[in-house]
Specification:
Radius of gyration: 32 Å
Shape: elongated
Strand content: 5-15%
Distance between the termini: 15 Å
Structural class: alpha+beta
Number of domains: 3
Order of helices and strands: EHEEEEEHHEHHH
Largest sheet: 3 strands, antiparallel
């Protein structure tokens, strides 16, 4: 929804500025909802515009001169506000674990002891699971994280995810090692990701324009919110 003082005498269909504004609205498949005088000189200058498929419940124009030389325009737009859903997950902070400490704990457990030839497979599996869970609970206890479930990403965003993950992985490696070779790999991946993003961005919008026959009035109503 767009609203404000446009200083265009919209009620005069023959006025050049009014005709130009009407053409712009038509090109974007938008309509203007205010009718009647909104200025002390009798012109319709204060406008409220929406897409054609977005209907306003009520548009009222107060008398001119109560507050200023413009009338107060009030409208109602029905909107649904859904509360963000959250998801809880049980996670462990494995990045903070020292590998040498894990090795020390494993060598002191029965997993690193010789296995008898007549040992039961089911018992070995249960012992393996119990020992590893005990070590994990000591080093990295399970904790709960709560995250908002985001809106499903479109196809363009999903195709960008592998390059983004790889770039962030190389960045973390360089910040950890500070080696020149790791920095070169990170810079190369970042530049490659930028080139791919530009190419995919152009590919997406060219495809959208071709679907709508290069008509903006058909394109924008079908475009999902960004």
């Amino acid at each position: 929804m767009i609203g404000g003082d446009f200083n265009v005498r919209f009620q005069l269909a023959a006025d050049p500025d009014s005709r130009h504004l009407s053409d712009v609205l038509s090109s974007f498949d938008m309509v203007q909802h205010v009718s009647g005088s909104t200025h002390r000189c009798g012109n319709t200058l204060d406008l409220v515009m929406t897409f054609a498929n977005c209907q306003l419940n009520a548009v009222t124009v107060d008398p001119v001169g109560i507050v200023s030389d413009h009338a107060l325009v009030v409208c109602r737009l029905t909107a649904t506000n859904t509360a963000p859903t959250t998801a809880e997950r049980l996670v462990r902070g494995w990045r903070r674990v020292d590998r040498s400490e894990i090795r020390h704990l494993l060598t002191a457990r029965r997993l690193c002891q010789p296995v008898p030839g007549d040992a039961d497979v089911e018992q070995l599996i249960a012992s393996y699971d119990a020992v590893l869970r005990d070590i994990a609970d000591k080093l990295v206890p399970v904790h709960t994280v709560r995250r908002h479930r985001a809106r499903p990403a479109d196809a363009v965003v999903r195709r960008r995810m592998p390059e983004r993950r790889n770039c962030r992985r190389l960045e973390r490696r360089y910040r950890l090692t500070r080696r020149a070779q790791d920095r070169r790999l990170w810079v190369y991946a970042a530049r490659r990701r930028l080139r791919l993003n530009r190419a995919k961005y152009e590919e997406y919008w060219v495809g959208r324009l071709n679907q709508c026959s290069c008509s903006s009035s058909l394109l924008w109503p079908k475009q999902p919110l960004i």
